[in-house]
Structures are given as structure tokens and as C-alpha cells.
Known about the structure:
Elements: H1 2-14, E1 50-55, E2 61-65, H2 78-91, E3 99-101, H3 104-107, E4 121-123, H4 124-134, H5 137-148, H6 151-164, H7 188-199, H8 205-208, E5 212-215, E6 220-223, H9 228-231, E7 235-243, E8 247-256, E9 259-268, H10 271-288, E10 289-293, E11 303-306, E12 312-313, E13 315-317, E14 322-326, H11 327-330, E15 334-339, E16 343-344, E17 352-359, E18 365-373, H12 382-397
Parallel strand pairs: 11-16
Antiparallel strand pairs: 1-2, 1-9, 3-4, 5-6, 7-8, 8-9, 10-14, 11-12, 13-18, 15-17, 17-18
Helix pairs in contact: 2-5, 2-7, 4-5, 5-6
Amino acid sequence: MKKIVAALLAASMLCGSFAFAAEANPEDFAWVPASEAIVTMENIGVAVPSAILMEKETGQILFEQNAHKRCAPASVTKIMTILLVVEAIESGTVSLKDSVVASSNAAGMGGSQIFLEEGEKMSLEELLKSVVVCSANDASVALAEHLAGSESAFVKLMNDRAKELGMSDTVFSNCTGLPTRSEHLTSAYDIALMSRELIKHSFIKKYTTIWMDKVRNGQFGITNTNKLVRFYNGATGLKTGFTDEAMFCLSATAERGGVEYIAVVMHAETSDIRFEAAKALLNYAFSAYTLEKATPDEPIPPVPVELGEASHVQPVVSGGASLLLKKKEAVGITKTVALEKSVRAPVSKGQKLGAITIRSQKGELIKELPLVAAENVNRMTWWQIYMRYILMMAGARL
């Protein structure tokens, strides 16, 4: 019966080609007027209660507005669901080719769905695609049960992973974001954290960038709930959400020129406002900032190690090899390296060996980053020192 209903929906909504799986109500493609969500270089403002803008590689926050305000996230919850599935795939715990059997619990989910029937088998890949693209609640629960045995066990994994990521504003009570009597809250900041973690797994973008596709051997069409995938240059995902309580939420990601940003919008009054606000934040990031290498243009020389098992240790930039700068700051920057002449063993990985100083064209300090040891260097034993001395003397005689 569900498959018949699905077929009728597909025919009526998109002329028989695709079924639009909306989270609450189908949304048109109109954009909100720019005046309702304005972002300028001098003073960013968005017409939503809570928002954040973060760069992926450095994790640097470019803008935040009540970013730690705890809100119901609706289907944006599924970012964590997707993350756990992706990590399980990459660890080999599950496979995209797994056959997943839908339980009565999964088949009974409301809201956005692909109309699973109890006992129906689908591949893990098709279920994952359905969650990512059309926010299917039934597919989310089927995946949760496949990974953890039950949705409740999976939710524990979600909360454990949230703690590991430093998501201190978050409590999950289900894997879908559907309304619940239990506490189910997060914040724009925490959503940015889990979004950043998810897009580190580049293969998920195979699914997050889909606009329209089909599952069930081409029998059921799905359309992305995230309009930016089709209408925003460089969009890479990520997830929409809507309930009466949460209102319109979005975690939007986009990449241009090797730099990727995450814009999270919470509790927007309309769908149009959430998309326009995210666009405005992303536009600001791409127009105002650039990602520069923190490493100097020339290779950093190794530092000699006295009495070490290795004669030298290689310094590396602490905290990553990239630096997010305003474009006007990045013009004509200089990088100066200062290193210890030598260090005495033992040397610990991460031990400071010097610093790289980055200055503007006018000589103003932009950033000073530590240069640290890339690996441990143990101190030689007395026997090793003796043998090295013997070899050195023998070489001198020759």
C-alpha cells in the first residue's frame, strides 16, 4: 500500500518523474528579498535568532549571533546520524553494499520518508542517500538499527560522539529530529562542529551534492531539501530541518578555490529567510577572506639534536598549515622563521623549537605560530654515545 501511495505522490508532485520529500510542507524556489537578510563587510546581520559562520580547515569563526542558544534542530539532527554511518563505513564496521531490513519501527516513521514497508530490504547506500538527499526519517531509523541494534542504542552513540566533538550544548533523544517529549536540543555552534567533522569525509559529498536521483531500482524519485545545492555556486551540502518548534533550520556548506565554509542558521521564520541568510553569510566569507599557507615559502630546515638517537628533528607549524586572513591583509605578507640553533635530547613530539612570524605589507603583526618537533627523538644511551665516539675517531684516523 505504501508503495502505491508513493507512486501517486510522485506522479502528482513532479509529473511522474520525482517525488519531492519535504520535511513538512513543499517549499517553492523563491528567494527572500535581500533586504530581509543583509550582510555587509562592516556589520554582518542576519534576520534569524541564531547563526554562525565557520571555516572548515582552521575551524575559525567569522561570525556568530547567539551561536550557543539551545534550539530544537529538527532534521539537522541527521548530520550526526550521517556522520556515525560514514565513520562506520570507513572503519569497515558496515558496508555501502549491506542489505538493511526495515523494522516495523522504521517503517512507522512519519514526516519525510521513502515509505519503507516492514521487512523491506534496501542497500545501506540507498538508505544513506535517502537520508542525505530527502531527509527520510524511516531510512534514518533503519540505518540506526542496522548499526546499533536499536534506535536508543544509536542515540547513545550520537551523544557520546557529540561529547567527543566538544558539543556541550547538545542532547539528542532520537536520530531524526522529529518532535519528542524528551530533551532534544543543540546550538548553531555545535551544529557547525559536527558539520565540519562530516565534511572532512569527502566521499559524503557524492550524496550531499545530489539535486535529484532515484532509489528502489529507479522506481522512487528523491529531491534534495537543500535548494542551495542547485542554486548556489560551490554548494557542497549539507542539511535542512523544519518542525513547528524548530522552525526553519539549515547547515549550509560551500567550497570555492580550495576553501570551504559552514553557515548555520537556526529558527528562521520562513524557508526563504534561512536560505537567504546562509547565502549572505557564505557570500561574505568568500568575498572577504582567503586561506593562506602558514608555512614559509622555503622549506623549514631541521634543528640539530645533541646526544639524540637522530641527529636532527624537523620543525612543523603547530595548529595546522593554513591561516585564514582577510583578503586585504593577505596582500604582500611576509613570513619570518626563528629556530633554536640546537636542542638537547630527549625531544618530545610537539616540543617548541621556534616560531614563524607573519606580518602585513606594512609590517604589522598578523600572527605568530609556534614551530614544534614533528616526532620524538630519544636520548642516546651511554653505550650508543661510546660507539658513536669510537666510530667518529676511527673515521678521523682514516
